[in-house]
Amino acid sequence: MIRFLIRRLALGVVVMWLITVAVFALFFIAPNDVARTLAGRQATPEVVASIQARLGLDQPLWRQYLDFVGNALHGNLGYDYYHGVPVTTIIAAALPITLSLAIGASVIWLLLGVSTGIVSAVKPRSIADRGLTVFALFFYSMPTFLLGLLLLLYLYFYLTLAGYSWFPPGGYVPLSQGVMPWAQHLILPWLTLALVLAATYTRLMRGSMLDVLGEDYIRTARAKGIRESRVIGRHAVRSALTPVVTQFGIDLGQLVGGVVVTETVFSLPGLGKTAIDAIGQQDFPVIIGIVLFASAAVVVANILVDIGYAVLDPRVRLH
Amino acid sequence: MTAPQPSPTVHVVGASDAEESPDERRIQGRSPWVLAWGRLRRDRIAMISLGVIVLIVLIAIFAPVFTLLTGHGPNDQYRLTGLSPQGLPVAPNHEFWLGTDDLGRDILVRIAYGARISLLVGIVATVITVAIGVVVGIAAGYFGGVVDTLLARLVDVVLSVPFLLVAIALVSITGPSLTVVILVIGLFSWASVARIVRGQVLSLREREFVEAARSLGASDTRIMFVDVLPNVLAPVIVYTSLLVPVVILTEATLSFLSLGLPPPTADWGGMISEAVPYYQTSWWFVIFPGAALLITTLAFNLFGDGVRDAFDPRSERLLQQ
After folding, report:
1. In DSSP terms, which residues pair with B273 in a beta bridge?
2. CA distances from A54 to A58, A112, B161, B166, B257 (A)
């Protein structure tokens, strides 16, 4: 187990290193003239040069890269080009919103995906199974932003017109102002993200459950007279969950993408929307900081999922 | 600019005379490709989906016909007839069959032209993705050792980078354009293809026919692409058919985030993005482009599911007949 951990962590470090190189190459070697943009159209060459020196843009590339990695390791991601606010402060402000969205959506996503998968698998080819299949396929083909807009149109706008203002149109209320207002503002974004992602899991869980239900030990459990609900709940679901855990690790990267879109549709000022806004302003330190932070988060989350997987299934450790 | 026709069936039939599986049945001599095509042709849902896909392709090719029928160009703004006195989009009527957008442009005509972008990106980016993935996967699986380790790590990196964030960052540096969108999707999506191909090649390379080819003096390149490649085509075709809708969704998402094609190009994702401020007053502005996008991805997903079933009848189907 220790060897597995070391190998897994080493891989994570290599991946992170390659990501920093890629991000650095993308942003620092790519042709863009930030100093000139910042200095304004009528700036003299001296002003441009001084801004370049302040941002460290006049240093040789290898020096810039070392500074960049060194600073990032010290928790210094630079300052936003326009207001001089530390990027870490910007990330810290946006992170609770993104985490609220991502964690809440993940919970709904997994509960929905796993439970519908179980229902489908317990009675395959039943009406419920077919209905859930059509449902899953529909949401699998659905673009996240379109679903978000449709939920806004029907559950916010038409419902409010009809006199039921249950769902707000967007925005974020911090958890400190109460759980209910927080959850109420996030319910539509959660559903948007969760419904699209859950679709794959319905199918995955169904297939995995059907495989497990055909195993001998399930027959043994039934033969021993254990209640069917216990056979399903205790014996089958547990081992059927293994592929779902793997897939969840793989999909964390996809979750980041979904978060960006959902935050944009519901104007939630989380990491994704902050990054998109920064891109519009060519505010590179903010973009780089968020890309690095999000990549690191995905890498760490993947390691955690793999460790969890290794605990669940000892065979994994051998590879 | 004509969108290429997304018909894997052409590959299937064309490929059947190129290679014959050694274990084909002697009695009738039908190759696995012919068998797969036969199964696909009997698959009602897949054939209906294929019909829908062909229809969308025809709409894309003959988009100018909609201009002729309605008399509206895709970027023509009808400020008098296409906008209400308050300056809002006009609901569907006899002149604008699917209504107008915020600039008084005909949504029907723009949807028809938008189909070109979706299909073009969907197919070109998929081909690039699959080409990179196949080459990397075959090389990793065939050479093994250091090459395999390096390529496998590269695959891990590409898979763990939050694709959309880097993609939008890249697009923002280079500026939005069709080429960049296609390259971004192609450069970041190949890793899963490489993984699938590598797994197949790992076992294929130990087979006798590879040994035979090597003993006859065939070069590594020849073995990889003449002997091994045909044997991984079936899973690659299945994956390709399921990748097209994903790519179409990715392109629409980039356009929605204003990082796809620059305006005024008609593009489904971009149209929906323009509709966001108007969803309360003009439902048609959201619903029609959204429906076009959803129908397209649904058709490709159902068709891809049929293709998978045709090649591997034991696999788990999305929809039972």
Report:
1. none
2. 9, 51, 30, 26, 32
Q: How far apart are CA B318 and CA A137, in angstroms?
A: 7
Give the other-Cβ count within 10 Å of A44's Cβ. 9
Q: What is the distance in angstroms between the Cα of A91 and the nearest Cα belonging to chain B?
A: 15
Q: Which residue of B has its CA nearest to A31?
A: B173
Angle at the Cα of A83 from the Cα atoms of A81 and A89, rounded to 5 degrees = 90
Closest-CA distance of chain B to residue A195, Å: 15
Chain A environment of B160 (Cβ under 8 Å): 15, 19, 253, 295, 298-299, 302
Quick one: which of B46, B127, B48 has its CA closest to B309?
B46
The region, left, alpha or beta by phi > 0 then psi within -120 to 50, assigned to residue A132 is: alpha
The secondary element (H helix, E strand) that includes residue A212 is helix A179-213
Total-model pTM: 0.82
Cβ <8 Å between A261 and B170: no
Once rounded to an integer, what is the mean pLDDT over residues B3-24? 45
User: Taking a C-beta distance cutoff of 8 angstroms, is the pair B76, B105 a contact?
Assistant: yes
Taking CB atoms and an 8 Å limit, are B316 and A203 in contact across chains? yes
**Domain stop point among A45, A76, A107:** A76
- In A, which residues are within 8 Å of B272 by CB distance? 143, 145-146, 149
Q: What is the ipTM metric for this complex?
A: 0.80
Q: Token pair of A80, please?
A: 């936003």
The predicted pLDDT at position B3 comes to 40
Query: What sign does the dihedral B68-B70-B75-B80 (CA atoms) show?
Result: positive
Q: Mark yes or no for CB contact A256/B164 under 8 Å.
A: yes
pLDDT-based confidence at residue B54 (cuts at 50, 70, 90): very high
The pLDDT score that the predictor gives to residue A35 is 62
Least CA distance to A203: which residue of chain B? B318
Residue A58 belongs to some domain of the structure: yes
B165:A256 CB<8 A: yes
Q: Are the beta carbons of B297 and A143 separated by less than 8 Å?
A: yes
A191, A213: one domain: yes
Of A149, A203, A256, the CB nearest to B286: A149
Token digits of residue B100: 């107008």
When CB atoms are compared, the residue of A26, A141, A253 closest to B170 is: A26
B257 vs A171: which has the higher pLDDT: B257
Chain A's closest residue to B318, CA to CA, is: A133
Domain count for chain A:
2
Contacts of B159 in chain A (CB under 8 A): 250, 253
User: Out of 1.10.3720.10, 3.40.50.20, 3.40.120.10, 3.40.220.10, which CATH number does the structure's domain B48-82+90-319 have?
Assistant: 1.10.3720.10
Q: Determine which of B158, B161, B278 to mutate to test the interface with A (most A C-beta atoms within 10 Å).
A: B161
Asked if residue A297 belongs to a domain, the reply is: yes
Within 8 A of A157 by CB-CB distance, chain B residues are 279-280
Q: Name the minimum distance, in Å, from the CA of A181 to any CA of chain B.
A: 23
* DSSP state for residue B314 in the 8-state scheme: T
Question: What averages of pLDDT result for each successive group of 10 residues across chain A (319 residues)?
Answer: 79 81 73 59 71 70 79 77 83 89 90 88 81 85 90 85 80 80 86 87 85 84 84 81 79 80 89 85 81 83 78 61
Tell me the one-letter amino acid at B314.
Answer: R
At B193-247, the pLDDT tens digits run 898 888 888 888 888 888 888 889 888 888 888 888 888 888 888 888 888 998 9
